[in-house]
């Protein structure tokens, strides 16, 4: 009899620890050979990539376990890792290991073959599920669970929930019955999990537990709508880690169409295989639990551009040991998001994802214009970041830049890098949505404000700060001050509450900041943090007095840089009037967008700090002295890389 006690809980643990030492059982004579591509089996190497999430490209997140005593305890640091993308060394922006200080996020979908042959495994997972959820909570992992079962049909037993009692009850209701006529609709169960809606800033993980082959489209039955290559592509595009706890051999015939190990092979580092007969199932569940709770979350921002659909190879090295995997580029010139694979489920009908091509997304290009100040026209100041190693440390000189205005090459009059001996000026207005849904972001801001102000001082920047909050009204928390202690106290007073009735009065908060008055010789910057849409004039409410085009015009006239940390999905409908990304688009190079769900908010604040303290300030005189209102285009080149933006002048 099969040694089936390969506990489901162990499978879940295997995701975290990848410490399995079992190898694939030799195939029997009644099994057809499949491809020769090696399988990723947890525990067989020191460094193991358990997943790659690139749905927020150019932000790439990889999940790695290191099977050494130090690695399992989380004692490794950023300096111990090297990450290569297509052979090129990347700069790691953040690294986290689940512990009391670092809270990580996981969306864990459990797929279970509920046929009669799985009765022992179902009994084991019922015993282990509470231990699993308790251990994930104690590891400081913010986890959502879902449960999908399958035979010749797919059944959603539990949609996404963070309530551990609900997932436990769903597991308790599993019942092994019937279905002894392998194969089963395993691919369709995976696809059902994929369209359930993973959080963009969480690790996406599917644990698939079965002792059978899979149906596939055109296999002579009507059960399945998918093939292994299609499902592999969907897993890669969705940045989903996949752990198969399945058979190494079956009583029927394995081939490239029915053998789910082929799916694991196609996923590279994002797929792992555990032989369901390699150990007691409870032991397997322990391994999976260890994988989940002993994973390093490593983020970086790639400077590279790839065509849609391109498969990119990622390699992670710790000492002499490496592992590699792949991810797929889903979209390059718009807001990175997960492609719809099927009609969206009823639960997600209100999560409308609106694409906005042409938006300037921070870190997506080598050269980023972060602002253009023309308030002292004809003298123009433009603010530029260069996302290369030499660019970020200020090693570039005036000769490395070319500046064009309306297509005409300009003579650079002044050239400064922040974080240099020459003092620069910045007026930074922080606009914060302090509704209840932003409670975590507000806590992160409180923790990071000292680091931000200290870094600005050390970069030799003379900075003034102001703070404005908004819900359905605008509140000035702090007018301009150059005292870091005062802005810190203002941020400490923030309290997230109420306001779950999107939209909010975001445009009016921006207009209030513009009323404060910026210093003519300073960079004018507004940092806008929200997870909502905006009210606008004549939207059927009395809350707002402005429209996006009006506010865009005012920002351009004031020479204000605008950084939006905002959503790509909302619990409502995006349109041209309420989507703040339209404001970013209207500003050209003076607007930047960061997806608020693309990373932990603390990491996003680190990126913003880099923008502020790693900026080239380039001054020139515009040759155009025409009176009247005019919009001009500025284009900046650094070698073969460029960015462009606009400014508005009004001369009386």
Automatic annotation (TrEMBL):
Q: Name one GO cellular component term.
A: cytoplasm
- Which PROSITE patterns would you find in this protein's record? VWFA (PS50234)
Query: Is the keyword Iron in the record?
Result: no
Record flagged with keyword Secreted? yes
Q: What is its main location?
A: secreted
**Any idea where the VWFA domain is?**
107-288, 427-608
Keywords attached to this entry? Secreted, Signal
Q: Where in the cell is it found?
A: Secreted
Q: One GO MF term, please? A: protein serine/threonine kinase activity
UniProt cross-references to Pfam families, sorted A to Z: VWA_4
Entries under Gene3D superfamilies matching the protein:
von Willebrand factor, type A domain (3.40.50.410)
Name of this chain's protein: VWFA domain-containing protein
